[in-house]
Amino acid sequence: MCGIAGLIDLTGAPVSPITLQRMTDSIAHRGPDGEGSWIDGNVGFGHRRLAIIDLSPAAHQPMISTDHRFVLTYNGEIYNYRELRAELQAAGYWFSSKSDTEVVLNAFAHWGTDALLKFNGMFAFAILDRAERRLTIARDRYGIKPVYYAKQGGKFAFGSEQKAILSRSDFRREMNMRATLEYFTFQNIFTDQTLIKDVQLLPAGHYATLELSERGADLSVTKYWDYKFTEPTETIDRQEYVDELDRLFRQAVNRQLVSDVELGSYLSGGMDSGSITAIAANSFPYLKTFTCGFDLSSASGVELAYDERERAEAMSALFKTEHYEMVLKAGDMERCLPSLALHLEEPRVGQSYPNFYAAKLASKFVKVVLSGSGGDELFGGYPWRYYRAVGAQGFEEYIDKYYQFWSRLIPNSMLARVFAPVADQVEGVWTRDIFRDVFLSHDNELSSPEDYINHSLYFEAKTFLHGLFVVEDKLSMAHGLESRVPFMDNDLVDFAMRCPVGLKLNSLADVVKMNENDVGRKTQRYFQKTSDGKQILRDMMSRYIPDSVTAAAKQGFSSPDASWFKGESIDFVRRTLLENDAAIYQFMARGPVEDLINDHLSSRENRRLLIWSLLYIEAWFQETMS
């Protein structure tokens, strides 16, 4: 796990070693174990190393093939690298290291971009074919590892983080208002845009090529993989599905235990991380586990259930792990915002600062940590979301219903008022069209309730889960920590995509029978019921963790900010967003924004996600644009 960076001068001028060094220095936190650079005329590759597999100098990067044709700078882990290595050795390739980096290098030399479908793991890399003068940048199929790129001023640059690109003294920084509008609609960015103009994020499951023999050539972006959630046509045997899920889950966790350094696991108190810990603890006695909890002394309502330390401690005792925990308080958000903005760059789903502290805790003890991300999105962990659109009559009505639900921050009716100061820059940006475009590559013939559910699963894997991965990568690597996600094993994902909806959701048939005009308690109960999802996963995991955990309602990793913003953090909110001349008012209308904030402070509406986003963007602007 590492950080990559690179620069190509499209005019043919040589790359400056000083500029390349500045780029790699900006992401030094991603790779504290070593650095490397390679320059050949107008092409330069940089690398920062976090040594996980093969700690020897033989795995140093950038890595050059034995025939000197290919040069690679790579970030990631390929968990089936040993099998691919054996296959390549049989084809005549020679290896001088035990690293997966050399496997990626030789696999690309042998199979070209077809190698991407052979990799089971997480990765982002750039590889130069010196004979063909072709640069290829690739990202893993799920988007666990990010890679950004920008073409500006006759130069093409890329990096694991935006700061590698922004570190160039000649890069012109300008805020991207179209992406800002997109973020303040969805609390996410669905397109390949970022908050900085000209900086783009290579989409998950894509690779890009740049022909260096053609000066000023455009980047060609190609999709090589996509999610496809479908209903099976064969007869369903529930027990067979549970048994196969058990086999694939254990295989996935065990595959991701490969490491030459110490490995631990997050243990939230929920069943996903609990089951991963149960499997990993069989291979690692006294496995180190980590939990972040919250001070709930000033919380109220549903937030009183946000602290999961008690359940995590119980599972730690059951699995005999070496357990560590941290308790977050209201002031911790304010304290970490500058560092968070520096490392996270563009924000994504939810309040990210608890993840920042969780990674900080784990990094004190291990260099690799297992995470339960992906279980909810693959196996239907959010039924109250899907049920809202399951009664739609056709694709366009489905889009209308689901779009309204996912407009998480600024109400659609207020977007024009809020962004009035930059109306000319966001003209023609229709966020419903952005939402709809997520489905461009998906089958939009919807004829059954199961089709609508699978549509929702596709959408959330492409957007919400991807956002979680961007956050997870940035905030773990901010502390020199590699985060692994066993649920995103290729075989397990393939199984999840063809697993029947009826085995994931418990109450779909009841919801379908309900009159969609019934807005009484019965309808609301199904929208709010949080134990309907992941039924097959609950069945399988009951073999490893207590029933009290597998039967529990879904609980996300959230802090009690709704209460804190009206209580212990209210002075910080007022000082930052209401009383001072905040930077956000350079592009947002102050009056409408203050009205939305006061909705929360006066308890008229719960706008904790919006307030968090405004606080973050304010900190980000000061860190990035000032």
Description:
- This protein is an alpha+beta fold and 626 residues long.
- It is built from 26 helices and 17 strands.
- Strand 6 (121-129) and strand 7 (134-139) form a beta hairpin.
- The relative contact order is 0.12.
Can you give me a brief rundown of this structure?
With 626 residues, the chain is of the alpha+beta class.
Side by side, the strands of the main sheet go 2-3-1-9-8-10
Name the helicity range. Answer: 40-55%
Report the count of strand segments. 17
Number of helices: 26
Q: Report the C-alpha radius of gyration, rounded.
A: 24 Å
User: Mean of the pLDDT scores?
Assistant: 91
pLDDT < 50 stretches: 515-524
Shape descriptor: globular
Structural class: alpha+beta
Beta fraction: 15-25%
Describe the sheet with the most strands.
Answer: 6 strands, antiparallel
Q: What would the keywords be for this entry?
A:
six-stranded antiparallel β-sheet; alpha+beta; 15% strand; 626 residues
Helix and strand arrangement:
Layout: E1 2-9, H1 17-25, E2 34-40, E3 43-49, E4 63-64, E5 70-78, H2 81-90, H3 100-111, E6 121-129, E7 134-139, E8 148-152, E9 155-159, H4 162-166, H5 177-186, E10 199-201, E11 206-211, E12 220-223, H6 238-255, E13 263-266, H7 271-283, E14 288-294, H8 309-319, E15 322-328, H9 330-344, H10 353-363, E16 368-370, H11 375-379, H12 383-386, H13 395-406, H14 415-418, H15 431-437, H16 449-477, E17 482-484, H17 490-498, H18 501-504, H19 508-513, H20 521-528, H21 535-541, H22 547-550, H23 561-564, H24 570-579, H25 590-601, H26 608-624
Parallel strand pairs: 13-14, 13-16, 14-15, 16-17
Antiparallel strand pairs: 1-3, 1-9, 2-3, 4-5, 5-6, 6-7, 7-11, 8-9, 8-10, 11-12
Helix pairs in contact: 2-3, 6-21, 9-26, 10-16
